[in-house]
Amino acid sequence: xxxxxxxxxxxxxxxxxxxxxxxxxxxxxxxxxxxxxxxxxxxxxxxxxxxxxxxxxxxxxxxxxxxxxxxxxxxxxxxxxxxxxxxxxxxxxxxxxxxxxxxxxxxxxxxxxxxxxxxxxxxxxxxxxxxxxxxxxxxxxxxxxxxxxxxxxxxxxxxxxxx
Length: 163
Ligand code: FES
Fold this sequence. Notes:
By secondary structure, this protein is α+β, with helices and mostly antiparallel strands. Helix content is 45%, strand content 12%. Strands 2-3-1-4-5 form a five-stranded mixed sheet, sandwiched between helices. The model has no long low-confidence stretch (mean pLDDT 92). FE2/S2 (inorganic) cluster is lined by residues 90, 92-95, 131-135, 138, 140.
């Protein structure tokens, strides 16, 4: 670890983070502990939200895109809220200025769904992330665990509508 490395602090002082922290430390706070750490967080909180995913990723040194990818790919992980399909829209600076806002607007207009919501028919959940670590692909999204870069809002919304 570089001398300046500072371990990220848990998202809140909820005691349950201690369990997650201990579990990650036991596995050496390494990227290989990702699945184990996500399990620990889900066991402790019942589901994984943005704060949990970012905290685990930052502690283990795993890019957020990978953390979201893993968490949305495996069906044993539960993100809140959860539809049959999941679209995580990155709203970090690079993605924001390159069209994330249009994507979110399009999703709301066409599918009536906003971040942290699931469509009425339960087909799609929309989540946001602060930065997926794929800024060169801005705007980036993760659909069902797969990172998609340089996405056009209209095209993406049409794809999601057809799923
Ligand atoms: S700002 Fe979106 S991937 Fe970095």
